[in-house]
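Illustration 12: ATP synthase complex subunit 8.
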Amino acid sequence: MPQLNPSPWFFIMLTSWLTFSLIIQPKLLTFVSMNPPSSKAATAPSTTPWTWPWT
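Figure caption equivalent — predicted structure in token form:
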């Protein structure tokens, strides 16, 4: 069964992960986030209980 031979597929996987890790990922991480986290405190929403008409 030739699909069990890891020789060609391991090299392809290793090459693709190295390409992603060393070339593509640093380029993607240089972009500034479009929605930066804000420093204001989170407020809990005020909720009111629902009144069910059949109870």
